[in-house]
Design brief:
Layout: H1 8-15, H2 19-22, H3 38-45, E1 52-58, E2 61-66, H4 78-111, H5 117-123, H6 144-150, H7 153-156, E3 165-168, E4 171-173, H8 188-220, H9 245-252, E5 261-266, E6 272-277, H10 287-301, H11 304-317
Antiparallel strand pairs: 1-2, 3-4, 5-6
Length: 339
């Protein structure tokens, strides 16, 4: 790098552990003082145009920094920033107004806890009624904190308003229980339809699996199957097309030396796919893809907990990393740098 700083972008693309900046050849663009972590910030702003600074250690690892250009800070004319200033002022005014309204809202739902009507009239709000709320209820606004409040003694038994609960950014909610029905076991007549539908689905799933397995056996025995194949297509893990993960995985599982062959798989919805695998081709990764994978692995192994987890998997399943550059702690040599 010091011998030939012009290779900075090339080396950043192939060696950087940050996939985002690596794709840009390490280019972070222009930034102002204070926008980066202190160690990186101090190193950059203590240098000058053309400097190569390394190594710089931060919480994210070690960095090699090349200062390509420097622009002096300039105060913008008022007419250029007027709209920005006005927007910032309006935002700050809105924050102050919300804080005041939030305090008043919280006080009213607590002090007048026998009804939500006063607070609704005060702030021009519409009271909404939600039925069939259970402990497992899910809704955009009724989050677990709201559910917990609804099942609290004051709200459930004394029929009081809940405290003000923040359910989204700058959004408060108070709720009350108007009627409560204790949990009961449904009668057979109430669940009969669901039971019948479940059993039918199970039978259909089993029948699809049996028929699919029988068709595969016939095809492997050079006999006709019960259905017809769809259009021929090429798929991969990165380009699965319209096929589910299970289908793609099943299609890629057969031994490439024993093709063509037939295989099958049942998806989560119960559908059974009979797959004819005619050929398999290993696609060589491009230098850019390899560089990206290396960066992802380096980032993965930089986390001690993840590294320990991966080490455990390697021990349990007997895996082995064949290439040194993929191993934790690997340091590139001059021979690894493309001329």
């Amino acid at each position: 790098m010091q011998a030939d700083p012009s290779k900075f972008a090339q080396l950043a693309k192939s060696k950087s552990a940050d996939p985002g900046s690596a794709r840009q050849g390490g280019d972070l663009g222009f930034f102002q003082k204070g926008m980066m972590v202190p160690e990186f910030d101090n190193a950059v702003f203590s240098g000058k145009k053309g400097d190569l600074i390394a190594p710089v250690k931060t919480q994210f690892g070690y960095h090699i920094i090349k200062i390509v250009d420097v622009k002096p800070a300039q105060a913008k004319p008022l007419k250029e920033v007027r709209a920005e200033i006005e927007a910032l002022y309006q935002q700050q005014a809105a924050i102050r107004a919300f804080a005041e309204d939030a305090e008043n809202f919280s006080n009213m739902v607590y002090e007048q806890s026998e009804s939500l009507q006063p607070v609704a009239e005060r702030f021009g709000l519409k009271i909404q009624t939600v039925k069939n709320v259970t402990r497992d209820f899910e809704d955009q606004l009724i989050n677990p904190n709201v559910i917990e409040a609804l099942y609290g003694f004051d709200v459930l038994e004394d029929k009081r308003n809940s405290n003000a609960i923040e359910v989204a950014s700058n959004t408060l909610l108070s709720a009350r229980v108007t009627a409560h029905h204790k949990q009961t076991v449904k009668t057979f007549d109430e669940v009969k339809g669901d039971i019948v539908a479940t059993l039918k689905n199970q039978k259909a799933t089993e029948a699809a699996r049996a028929q699919g397995s029988a068709d595969i056996a016939k095809l492997l025995d050079k006999k006709s199957a019960s259905g017809k194949f769809g259009d021929k297509t090429v798929i991969s893990r990165e380009r699965p097309g319209a096929y589910a993960y299970e289908v793609v995985t099943a299609a890629l599982r057969p031994d490439a030396n024993k093709l063509p062959t037939y295989t099958g798989v049942q998806t989560q919805d119960g559908s059974y796919f009979v797959i004819e695998v005619q050929s398999s081709k290993k696609i060589e990764a491009s230098p850019e893809q390899l560089a990206m994978r290396k960066a992802e692995l380096a980032q993965l192994y930089s986390n001690p907990e993840q590294a320990a987890f991966i080490s455990g998997l390697e021990t349990k399943f007997g895996t082995q990393i064949l290439k040194d550059e993929y191993k934790p702690g690997y340091q590139p040599t001059d021979e690894d740098v493309a001329p």
